[in-house]
Amino acid sequence: MKKLKGEQWQELIDHVATLPETHIDSLAFSHMMIKICDCLNCDLGSYKAALGCAACSQRTINALRDNDRQLLKRYEKSQKEIYLHLNKIGAGEETASA
């Protein structure tokens, strides 16, 4: 996925790849990808599911017309949503420092 977009996207991928899965930035990236790929509406019998998540996410990012800046805005929006949700349930501090 790293080489599918420009330099800012590649930096984001490098950053997220170094983080534990419970880190707020990692959660935000996953949240963004779930929304972009429409994972919650994926059906086990569908073509997308047959491809697998890795192939589907690569195809989706490759087909997406968003530039790096637009993708980073999506990521930042997901960061805010994750942060707000974690604070709402009282888990913001533990996850942000993980």
Describe this entry's structure for a reader:
With 98 residues, this protein is mainly alpha-helical. The chain has one domain (2-96). It is 68% helix and 0% strand. It has helices spanning 7-17, 24-37, 47-51, 53-63, 68-88, 92-96. α1 runs parallel beside α5. The longest helix has 21 residues, at 68-88. The two termini are 24 Å apart. The mean pLDDT is 93.
The outline comes out as globular
Helix content: 55-70%
The class by helix and strand makeup works out as mainly alpha
Number of beta-strand segments: 0
Low-confidence stretches: none
Indicate the radius of gyration in whole angstroms: 14 Å
The total count of helices amounts to 6
Span from first to last CA?
Answer: 24 Å
Report strand %.
under 5%
**How many separate domains?**
1
Mean of residue pLDDT? Answer: 93
Biggest beta sheet attributes = none
Key traits:
single chain, 98 residues, mainly alpha
TL;DR of this structure?
This protein is mainly α and 98 residues long. The chain has helices spanning 7-17, 24-37, 47-51, 53-63, 68-88, 92-96. Helices cover 68% and strands 0% of the residues.
